Amino acid sequence: MKTGLETLILPAGAAGAEAAARTLVAGGLVAFPTETVYGLGADAANAAAIAHLYAAKGRPAFNPLIAHVPDIAAARRIGRFDARALRLADAFWPGPLTLVVPKTDNCPVADLATAGLDTVAIRIPAHQVAQAILRAFGGAVVAPSANISGHVSPTLAAHVENDLSGRIDLIVDGGPVKVGVESTIVGCLDAPMLLRPGGLSRERIEAVLGAPLARPPLEAESCDSQPLAPGMLASHYAPRAQVRLGAQDVAADEALLAFGPARLPGVDGAVAVMNLSPTADLDEAAANLFGYLRSLDAKSPRAIAVMAIPEEGLGEAINDRLRRAAVVR
Ligand code: TXA
Ligand code: MG
């Protein structure tokens, strides 16, 4: 792995966007904020840059990447949208939604980025810093979350710096992200299918489609070698500490990730306590999730106990990430 790169950190703004575009053109790696999490970008057409990106993240090379573009015209140069895909794009782009569609015949995205599939994952981010970088660069940018593979996704520039300093060229600091969990991924190959719950709730997508989203085949969630959306690797979001879900009490060597107003037995003796949302607001909880997991993990508790979170709205994405964090490695 190439380390010892000088990682430059710039504030968001015109100069930051220009520097990001120049770095991407030169085949470099740029971390930048999107509304969901910070992404680690490379020129989607540059296979060498993408190879460096996989190496910097320590990511399994068959995990395909999301191509980020500034608008629907750019999206349609990369992928073929059927009527339902277009309806979702119209309703939710720019925003925390990724659509997997068939590639166009002259799709410029490198095969390495799509893991040789004939489909491509596309997203138009809403964050103005991401938009400014994409427009300044002018091409598609592939960007996984800007963390070492297996770590929780970064919601602050400092998280990116902790994981990737010395491995990438540039971090554009746009402050804390708003949504806090990754985009929802919908496959639009046949009947629209929920491949990954995320920052846009299932309920809102189904309301636009007027029909329930299809479920991926079960083995996609349980089989690590050939996952349908390989980000669904069972233990993808792992803190170092064990994670204990559905906690109804807290032990003295545990940290507590709380949700809502209830006070659990043992809470006063816990190593540390953080509350995702004292008022039980699921959007607020999603925004806090990865940062709080990192903070609690840094206290080196034996385990992080997590209170139950309802499986509705963004709770579906939060519980998905927590279940992956809880897989015993
Ligand atoms: O919010 C997000 O989506 C962030 C920001 C940076 O945009 N990005 C992100 O990327 O979460 P990443 O690489 O961590 O997750 C991308 C997911 C993976 O689960 C990958 O397997 C899936 O997208 N994916 C990419 N291309 C696919 C394809 N053609 N078919 C099925 N799944 C695909
Ligand atoms: Mg990721």
Explain what you see.
Helix content is 30%, strand content 18%. About 3% of the residues have low confidence. The chain starts with 7 loop residues before the first strand and ends with a helix. It is α/β, with parallel strands linked by helices. The protein folds into 2 domains: 202 residues, Alpha-Beta Complex (DHBP synthase); 84 residues, Rossmann fold, CATH 3.40.50.11030. Threonylcarbamoyladenylate binds next to β5, β6 and β10.
Concise synopsis of the structure shown:
With 329 residues, this protein is α/β, with parallel strands linked by helices.
The domain tally reads 2
Q: What ions, cofactors and ligands are bound?
A: threonylcarbamoyladenylate, magnesium ion
Distance between the termini: 24 Å
CATH-derived architecture of the largest domain:
Alpha-Beta Complex
Shape: globular
Mean pLDDT level: 92
Proportion of residues in β-strands: 15-25%
In what order do the strands lie side by side in the largest sheet?
Answer: 1-8-2-3-7-4-6-5-9-10
Unreliable sequence segments: 219-227
Q: Spell the H/E element sequence.
A: EHEEHEHHEEHEHEEEHHEEEHEH
How many helices? The count is 10
Structural class: alpha/beta
CATH class identity of the largest domain: Alpha Beta
Q: What proportion of the residues is helical, as a percent range?
A: 25-40%
| CATH fold node name of the largest domain | DHBP synthase
Spell out the CATH superfamily of the largest domain: DHBP synthase
* Major pleated sheet: 10 strands, mixed
E-strand count: 14
